[in-house]
Design brief:
With 164 residues, the protein is mainly alpha-helical. It has seven helices and no strands. It binds protoporphyrin IX containing FE (HEM).
Length: 164
């Protein structure tokens, strides 16, 4: 009886604190994401292959989004223009992941990307969809299993954007 009461008190406390089952991108999650990202995008793998597979997956799931990238020749994701675009996007992503645990730098980089995407009419929802493509492709290149409970809240932080 005493044990049941203790568990009940613990569960109620967690609920009151709002921590039960809630995913956070805390210091530990940030380190996990950084570590796993390095195993995907570090020197050992073909960065172009990773990014091409992510964009291929994204356009397969959202064919209507191809038009948004007409300027960079999205009809042919193997073209020089689109490759350069992919390199820019993943360089940005790499930077954001790299500074996840440096609050001020992360914030100023995020303000820049958020403003740019807002001006282009890019919503949080569609960036989350892009995150799903990343999540489908990453395991193929990652050492070990992706820690989804760390990736999801940290990616959502990026997708949500930061305004000045
Ligand atoms: C976390 C994911 C993303 C990151 C880090 C990111 C970052 C970037 C970067 C660095 C550029 C290049 C800016 C420049 O030319 O200087 C860019 C361009 C752009 N991004 Fe994103 N992006 C992301 C996801 C998305 C998504 C999901 C969409 C919309 C579906 C999007 C729409 C665009 C558009 C339309 C451009 C301009 C393309 C052009 O040059 O014509 N981005 N993004």
């Amino acid at each position: 009886m005493y044990q049941i009461l203790s568990v009940a008190v613990l569960v109620l406390s967690c609920l009151a604190l709002g921590t039960l089952g809630e995913e956070v991108c805390g210091p530990l999650e940030r380190i996990k994401v950084q570590h796993q990202w390095v195993s995907v995008y570090g020197a050992d793998h073909d960065r172009l292959k990773v990014s091409t597979l992510v964009w291929k997956d994204f356009f397969e799931h959202h064919p209507e989004e191809r038009a948004r990238f007409e300027r960079v020749n999205s009809d042919n994701i193997f073209s020089g223009d689109f490759r350069a675009h992919m390199v820019r996007v993943f360089a940005g992503f790499d930077l954001l992941i790299g500074v996840l645990n440096e609050e001020e730098i992360f914030k100023s980089a995020m303000i820049h990307y958020t403003k740019m995407h807002n001006d282009l009419g890019v919503t949080t929802e569609i960036i989350k969809e892009f995150g799903k493509s990343i999540a489908r492709v990453l395991p193929e290149f990652m050492d070990g299993k992706p820690d989804i409970t760390a990736w999801r809240p940290c990616f959502n932080l990026i997708a949500a954007g930061v305004s000045e």
